[in-house]
């Protein structure tokens, strides 16, 4: 029951949805969907997460409004608040950094649409401004619709996206390392600001990127901001095993999570890394209330508000395939390989082998947790679930996807966090200053 | 002497140098050169500017450490703090937005190295988070050294850079306009988040950029963040006349400033714009103290600390030409056309026609105000200078380049601002909420 720092504790991130992860959450009477443009709202949410001593808040990204479904964005802007309108995630976490003290702050930035120099400089800056709390979720992006906002008709193919991503991250880390610790001298009398011998060109030479450096930002408090990744395909796993320090993943069952966990730790070791330096955090949607019955009631009320087309629009976007060509009241036929998120299609196909759903039913289901595991019940039940996965070799923590925000987040922090603390599974106070320290990751 | 809003007032921006605009400022005993990575320092500086009721703080940019001089960065990192090490400007103004209330916040972002979709989204986000205080200084970048951080050997040529810049800004404004005001419905009962009929594809088709849109950020408080530009070449002036709402410029004399002012107002009118919608703000370096003698003493003490190589490294970088090939103790020979900032070379050449300086002396001189006008003297003298330029058709305000920070800034706000207020030339309180309102610019 001790919560000494030596003991392994659950790591908790919050997927920072404005109204909640349910596509219909913005319609729930308790949510404040209109406040997504107000800094004060993010101060409230991040402050709540910080009060709960969570490891980090996290923002996903997607460059543009999804319009894969039916080749128009109408279903999206009608029903899915978070996909229609948002603030730029990297910009938003910068503002959040400025108004929080301890919690880690991570955002997504795609290797397909920007430049290593810019990304290296942005995240190094956020790491400085936050005192070492920055994390970068590396994605390769999955939708051709996004490519069309960047002067291209379509994305690179899946393999090329990962080749580009690998070069991108190598160039970025080269830039982060271009200033040695101690290069800043600030010698006023001698007139030497920085030691040229401790600043190095990166000279990165790849097929996609050639980046000379050095970066014009000194080495940041964490050395390198924490690298997060969520690829689950073969190429994605290989990439994550090599670079990721935190891995997000969608795992519907304990068994699938255990298998993924073992596979990723093994792969990381095969790359010469310590398995402890890769934290695996499946997404989970906690629907918690004082009693299980009450939690089930919340779940049902959210499902009622769902527009099935919203779920199909979300899924179409993620797999980069227009599901509107199939009839709504029949089962989904087997799909050819898609060009978007392949692992997501595999999860859906696997589920459809056992659950006979029409496309409409699939849409309604998908608009909920999007293939992430739900944990519905009393505080003890949700804590039991988390403890089982954590002690059962299925995860090092969770990426929390709250169905309704801020309500579900408040309930989780009020009801589940103390329960985890009582069990010695979660910190009662921050012991570190940086995100690396929160996560138990070494400074590179 | 009334300060009614109808009266024309001086607009004041602050070029937010960490230690000051003098290359040697970081060596001055009063500066805190080591605090450039701390958010608390920017809170102090921006808070000071806000207390002085200034229109905006402004951050320049340059992508990488200058190494044009001698093809190495040694002189730069030894002597020029601001060019060696900084925080990403767009990221930094986001953090400043989060911790200030009223002052405008503007940063530089280059059209040569990023994508319109990203820039549109960043600045729209900052505009939302700041309640309408964002400005974007559009630059085309001037150094091949920067290009080498972006997978290219050299910059596009001068004309092509401006063609690309024009497409870039057209694509960005198209994205900003892709959401009509009122597109957000937030109709919970009806289940309609946003009105698809009020959200439009941008469908931008250029030679450099094809950007479909729509942006995934609703229209921001200012409609569009304020566009700032500083091109002074023929192509630069044409671009500014078409797009800029604030123009920064280096004007060493009243006469040159008057001529530039008249030319830019005329050009704006020729593009069908109201000349009042283009605010011309030359850079000025105020060195102010209780008495002129004391101000001259400060100036001399700063010059003493200057490393002439720092000035030559700065100038080499700006004109994209390595001055180290010329002997230090001889005058600069006439240069062929350079590929960097052409207007800057012209200013230098013009000065050298009347002032016979060796290259070493030029370096020492240039490391000061970098061809911007200095205003050295008592509060009355500096206010006289500003009044003369402002009422004499030379400017609509100034971009203040303080030689030592925060000292010169404190002195200016304590001594000159009240003097300007007494003369009815400057606001005594913010009358607007947005940067556009501060500047007297309409919402597009």
From TrEMBL, chains A, B:
CDD domains referenced in this protein's UniProt entry, alphabetically: Nitrilotriacetate_monoxgenase (cd01095)
Ranges where the Luciferase-like domain occurs: 30-393
GO molecular function: nitrilotriacetate monooxygenase activity
This protein's UniProt keywords: Flavoprotein, FMN, Monooxygenase, Oxidoreductase
One Pfam assignment: Bac_luciferase
InterPro entries cross-referenced by the UniProt entry: Diverse_substr_monoxygenases, Luciferase-like_dom, NTA_MOA
EC number(s) on file: 1.14.14.10
Identification of the protein by name: Nitrilotriacetate monooxygenase component A
UniProt organism field: Paenibacillus solanacearum
């Amino acid at each position: 029951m001790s919560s000494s720092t030596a003991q392994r504790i659950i790591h908790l991130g919050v997927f920072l949805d404005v109204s909640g992860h349910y596509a219909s959450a913005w319609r729930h009477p308790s949510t404040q969907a209109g406040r997504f443009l107000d800094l004060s709202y993010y101060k409230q949410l991040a402050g709540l997460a910080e009060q709960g001593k969570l490891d980090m808040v996290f923002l996903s990204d997607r460059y543009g409004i999804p319009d894969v479904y039916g080749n128009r964005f109408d279903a999206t802007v009608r029903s899915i608040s978070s996909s229609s309108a948002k603030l730029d995630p990297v910009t938003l976490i910068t503002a959040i950094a400025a108004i929080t003290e301890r919690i880690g702050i991570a955002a997504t930035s795609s290797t397909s649409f920007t430049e290593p120099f810019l990304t290296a400089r942005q995240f190094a800056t956020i790491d400085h401004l936050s005192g070492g709390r920055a994390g970068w979720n590396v994605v390769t992006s999955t939708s051709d619709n996004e490519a069309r906002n960047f002067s291209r008709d379509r994305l690179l193919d899946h393999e090329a996206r990962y080749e580009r991503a690998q070069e991108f991250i190598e160039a970025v880390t080269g830039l982060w390392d271009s200033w040695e610790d101690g290069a800043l001298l600030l010698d006023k009398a001698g007139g030497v600001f920085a030691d040229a011998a401790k600043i190095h060109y990166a000279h990165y030479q790849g097929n996609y990127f050639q980046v000379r450096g050095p970066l014009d930002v000194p080495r940041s408090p964490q050395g390198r901001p924490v690298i997060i990744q969520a690829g689950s395909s073969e190429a994605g796993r290989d990439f994550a095993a090599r670079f990721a320090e935190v891995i997000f993943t969608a795992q519907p069952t304990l068994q699938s999570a255990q298998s993924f966990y073992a596979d990723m730790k093994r792969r990381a070791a095969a790359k010469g890394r310590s398995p402890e330096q890769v934290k695996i955090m499946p997404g989970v949607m906690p629907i918690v209330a004082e009693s299980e019955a009450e939690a089930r009631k919340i779940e049902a009320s959210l499902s009622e508000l769902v527009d099935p087309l919203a779920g199909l629009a979300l899924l179409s976007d993620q797999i980069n395939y227009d599901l509107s060509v199939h009839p709504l009241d029949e089962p989904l036929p087997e799909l050819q390989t898609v060009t978007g998120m392949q692992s997501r299609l595999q999860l859906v196909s696997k589920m459809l082998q056992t659950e006979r759903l029409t496309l409409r039913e699939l849409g309604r289901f998908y608009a909920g947790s999007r293939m992430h595991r739900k944990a519905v019940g009393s505080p003890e039940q949700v804590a039991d679930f988390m403890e089982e996965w954590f002690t059962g070799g299925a995860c090092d923590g969770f990426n929390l996807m709250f169905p309704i925000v801020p309500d579900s987040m408040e309930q989780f922090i009020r009801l589940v966090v103390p329960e985890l603390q009582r069990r010695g599974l979660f910190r009662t106070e921050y012991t570190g200053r940086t995100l690396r320290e929160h996560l138990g990751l070494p400074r590179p």
